[in-house]
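Progress report, Aim 2. The chain analyzed during this reporting quarter is listed below.
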Amino acid sequence: MSSLRVARFVEQNPAEYAWLVAKSPVFDFASSVLSSLYRFGNLTPNQLAAIQRCVAKESAPRPEPVPAAQVDVAPIHVAFDKAKDSGLQYPKLRLGAFVFSPAPDTGKNAGAIYVKSDGVYLGKVVGGKLFTSRDASPDNVTQMTDVLADPRSAAIAYGKTFGKCSVCNRDLSDPESVSLGIGPVCAKRFGWQ
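Predicted structure tokens for the chain:
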């Protein structure tokens, strides 16, 4: 009776069965579910739904990786070098929708500048290039390229748009800081007097 039920399952769910057979040697979950199928002749609705999600995920088209953008990244490196030379231990720049921060000097990406948006890693600036992660959309890449080309202007635009300093993230309240879009102390630290 069980073998008839297994045959019926295979007939009704060929993609799911093929996935289970292919993945069971290397994936404990698939192996366990395949054993259950052979033992009971069927899967529970939750097991079947989980397998269907796995099949759908594997058959979904993968997005093409976004190539490294060609942009002059020297201005952002110069700005961070000046900030470190001024004594700023953990410099950050909020430019557009992104937060730029240097990688730790002792890490494997020493010298790189990380790019995040809402805590999501979108890439890094290293070796004179912008390398993007798979989470960076083409629109993200365009925006990152724009702010990297002129970080000073992007910092000022951030301050004028959000009313906060792009460096320290404090509210701009001094009339001169508000009109400049950046606090004078932070501007000086990044070499943007």
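The chain is about 50% helix and 10% strand. The mean pLDDT is 88. These observations will guide the mutagenesis work planned for the next reporting period.
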